[in-house]
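Why do we care about 3D structure at all? Because function follows from shape, and shape follows, mostly, from sequence. That is the central idea of this module. The next example makes it concrete: a single protein chain, its amino acid sequence, and then its structure expressed as tokens.
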Amino acid sequence: MSNPIAVLLSFLIFTVIAAGCGGSTPTTPAASTLAPDRSDYPFEIAEPEVYTAKVFVMVGNEVTGHFLARSGDRSRTDINVGTPNHTSRLVAANEIVVSYGAKTYYEIPRGDGETANLSESSAEIRGLFASPERARFEKVGDEDGLTKYRVTPAQDDRSEIYIYVDAGQKMIMRQEFFTGGDAARTLTYSAEMRELSREAPDELFAIPNGFRKVNAP
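And the structure:
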């Protein structure tokens, strides 16, 4: 397992989530996309070219809401939705960070000839819905239309992950991460994708009206 919800839920390059979780944070699987090129998965996953989804992350008793959108080469990642720290990262020809609390935005500078790509924050959120390398998969059964798998990281048999796959959508919709042995097994964090839609209107990738441009920090 790699590092996490520290920059993670930096979800994201921003440190907002880490602060919200406070203190120590659990480790999460590293991944750059919802659909890594992995032949060892006993199921098929593929990130849609066009979609939106809400993401809810639970660490301890705290739940934070986030949002993902993609339309071809354009992506949007929102963290801490519904709080004063609500922030968006919009990636298209350039990369924009939007603060809803301050009603401001700034553009991330890039070098000559450098183009924007999938943001680190998007990668971190998508990483919540991937499984560790060299893991053991065991199909547990079906729950609420999703196929449940037990995933045991080969390098740490004290950790256990459950993932819930929507075979029709080819997406991992939920992940639960447990630590400790059988006698003291604890749910460290969970991440769940909800309200998946295969539409992503253009306005989702636009700077909100009335927001003021500021210099990048």
